């Protein structure tokens, strides 16, 4: 069994996919081809933001948006302690200081109370200027944007939605990647909407920000590529990846998102009474980047993973280490305690999930359930 069955997905999409890729090779429009523009227009319309600027990957997308907001040394950027490294890495990369805040034990997402507490401590200390909050839509579920936006705006800060895992999710009728002042996503192959390599995108409603982002993505270009008005870098989505994404985005909308939700509901039905399953609050819709359960402790998790591996069922631990315990962040001050994150890092485990699993392939649910009961 595959953890995320990209081979099966390709077999299903093969005819359209091969045609789309060969078209790019035939036209030789490898950089900035018409497919890039078409994809940007479709993604912006889907999420409900004015601009979509594609780029090299989800990490560049976050960094570029922080650059657009002029974030740098002396600025505090609030990031959940329980997330993929890149969410905090970009903050340090831009010379600013990440402040890690705890998450909610049910949704795994940024805890608004921990956020507010951290902001107050940073403000009271007076060394750093609170500038940006980066909520992450972890495992496909949007964070609590009504509360987070209210807190951030009340403290004069902007909100950058890290939607790398959240594309396709819904929050109170609004689409993920439209829930902050700006948003980013990633097309890394294993994300809800993935390409066949690296790729990313930024979403904003501001014409000025969009123009700046398009400039820094191509060496700080001015009126044309060889007129360079600022220091930028090179971060673009290849035409071939855009062509692949156009095929995948169609499948994503037509059936994948619904299918992955169905598989998640089979898991929850079967496992809900024996283990802590993911919580999708009223008014939320997840795009299920991961299906993550919580066991009692680290030993139980190790034993559970060992038993499943023996039976050919892969599992993964996202994430084994809190951000504040990462060696790369050694020396950073920890402003608030993050006991939930510390516990989750020892107890969470993600199960195989994608929109191509059938109920039959989910007979493994029975094995998963009995393994939980045995450990
Ligand atoms: C994957 C991921 C990123 C980075 O995206 P890349 O395309 O791999 O650079 C950022 N944030 C989160 C939460 C992610 O899961």
Strand content: 5-15%
For the secondary structure, the number of strands is 12
- Apparent shape: globular
Ligand catalogue? pyridoxal-5'-phosphate
End-to-end separation in angstroms reads 22 Å
CATH class group of the largest domain? Alpha Beta
CATH topology of the largest domain: Aspartate Aminotransferase, domain 2
| CATH homologous superfamily placement of the largest domain | Type I PLP-dependent aspartate aminotransferase-like (Major domain)
Low-confidence stretches: none
> On the 0-100 scale, what is the average pLDDT?
97
Biggest sheet strand order reads 1-9-8-5-4-2-3
Based on helices, strands and strand pairing, what is the structural class?
A: alpha/beta
Count of separate structural domains: 2
Share of helix, binned:
40-55%
Q: What would you report as the Rg, rounded to the nearest angstrom?
A: 21 Å
Protein name: DegT/DnrJ/EryC1/StrS family aminotransferase
Family: Belongs to the DegT/DnrJ/EryC1 family.
Pfam family, one: DegT_DnrJ_EryC1
GO molecular function: pyridoxal phosphate binding; transaminase activity
Describe this structure in words.
- The chain is globular.
- It has 2 domains: 6-102 and 110-247, Aspartate Aminotransferase, domain 2, CATH 3.40.640; 255-374, Aspartate Aminotransferase, domain 1.
- It is an alpha/beta fold and 375 residues long.
- The chain contains 11 helices and 12 strands.
- Helix 6 links the parallel strand 4 (129-133) and strand 5.
- The protein has helices at residues 6-27, 34-47, 58-68, 86-93, 112-125, 145-154, 207-216, 239-271, 298-310, 339-347, 364-374; strands spanning 51-55, 75-80, 97-101, 129-133, 158-162, 170-171, 174-175, 182-186, 200-204, 284-285, 291-294, 348-351.
- The structure holds pyridoxal-5'-phosphate.
- Pyridoxal-5'-phosphate (PLP) binds at residues 57-59, 83-84, 86-87, 136, 162, 164-165, 186, 188, 198, 200.
- Keywords: Aminotransferase, Pyridoxal phosphate, Transferase.
- The active site is at residue 191.
- It comes from Sphaerochaeta halotolerans.
């Amino acid at each position: 069994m595959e953890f995320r069955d990209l081979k099966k997905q390709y077999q299903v999409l093969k005819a359209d996919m091969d045609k789309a890729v060969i078209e790019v090779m035939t036209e030789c429009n490898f950089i900035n081809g018409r497919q890039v523009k078409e994809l940007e227009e479709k993604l912006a319309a889907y999420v409900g933001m004015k601009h979509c600027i594609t780029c090299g990957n989800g990490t560049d997308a976050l960094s570029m948006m922080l650059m657009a907001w002029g974030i740098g040394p002396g600025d505090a950027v609030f990031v959940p302690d329980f997330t993929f490294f890149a969410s905090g890495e970009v903050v340090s990369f831009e010379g600013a200081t990440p402040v890690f805040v705890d998450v909610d034990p049910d949704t795994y997402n940024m805890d608004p109370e921990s956020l507010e507490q951290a902001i107050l401590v940073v403000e009271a200390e007076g060394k750093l200027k609170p500038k940006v909050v980066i909520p992450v839509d972890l495992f496909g579920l949007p964070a609590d944007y009504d509360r987070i936006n209210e807190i951030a705006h009340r403290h004069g800060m902007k909100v950058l939605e890290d939607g790398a895992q959240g594309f396709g999710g819904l929050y109170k009728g609004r689409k993920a990647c439209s829930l902050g002042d700006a948003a980013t996503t990633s097309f890394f192959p294993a994300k809800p909407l993935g390409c066949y390599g690296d790729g990313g995108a930024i979403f904003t409603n501001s014409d000025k920000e969009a123009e700046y982002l398009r400039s820094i993505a191509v060496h700080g270009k001015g009126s044309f590529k060889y007129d360079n008005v600022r220091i930028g870098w090179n971060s673009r989505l290849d035409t071939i990846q855009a062509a692949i994404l156009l095929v995948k985005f169609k499948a994503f909308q037509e059936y994948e998102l619904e299918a992955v939700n169905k598989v998640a509901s089979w898991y929850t039905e079967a496992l809900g009474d024996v283990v802590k399953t993911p919580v999708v609050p009223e008014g939320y819709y997840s795009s299920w980047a991961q299906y993550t359960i919580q066991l009692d402790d680290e030993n139980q998790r190790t034993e559970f993973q060992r038993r499943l591996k023996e039976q050919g069922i892969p599992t993964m631990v996202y994430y084994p280490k809190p951000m504040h315990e990462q060696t790369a962040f050694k020396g950073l001050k920890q402003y608030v305690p993050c006991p939930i994150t510390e516990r989750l890092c020892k107890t969470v485990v993600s199960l195989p999930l994608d929109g191509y699993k059938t109920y039959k392939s989910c007979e493994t649910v029975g094995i998963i359930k009995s393994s939980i009961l045995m450990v």
